[in-house]
Amino acid sequence: QVQLQESGPGLVKPSQTLSLTCTVSGGSITTNYYAWTWIRQSPGKGLDWMGVIHDDGITYFSPSLESRTTISRDTSKNQFSLQLNSVTPDDTAVYYCARLNRESDYVDYWGQGTQVTVSS
Question: Residue 45's closest CA among 94, 9, 108, 82?
């Protein structure tokens, strides 16, 4: 059973950088045919896909967030991370990490989500 757990600050000031880490257990982030993604949901809005890092380390981002987003990984810790620069209150959301099955293009495991509020 794959489990994902997000961690990081719950409060970030405007213009600063939001940093979150997802720790994965029950499966390796380098296993073929899987990718590891970040998704967020702002109050009253739908799910917003942010970006993904594939098993080979290649990253892809939402065009609307690409200029502000970095996704990286630490294979020794089986973790992957999100950095979102220059945040504004519009970046307030619940942030989820998840596993994407690249063969089926289906997200099959989710973290529980972590609330991040951008406020001074």
Answer: 94
- Classified as helix, coil or strand, 120 is coil
Query: Which stretches of the chain score pLDDT less than 70?
Result: none
**pLDDT tens column, 70-105:** 999 999 999 999 999 999 999 999 999 999 998 988
- Which tokens is 91 given? 């970046």
Nearest to 97 by CA among 2, 6, 3: 6
Distance between CA atoms of residues 102 and 94, nearest Å? 24
**Rounded distance between C-alpha atoms, residue 88 and residue 112, angstroms:** 23
Tokens for 99, please give them.
């596993």
Where are the extended beta strands (E) located within the chain?
Answer: 3-7, 11-12, 18-25, 34-41, 47-54, 59-61, 69-74, 79-84, 93-101, 106-110, 114-118
Residues 6+ apart with CB under 8 A from 86: 15, 17, 68
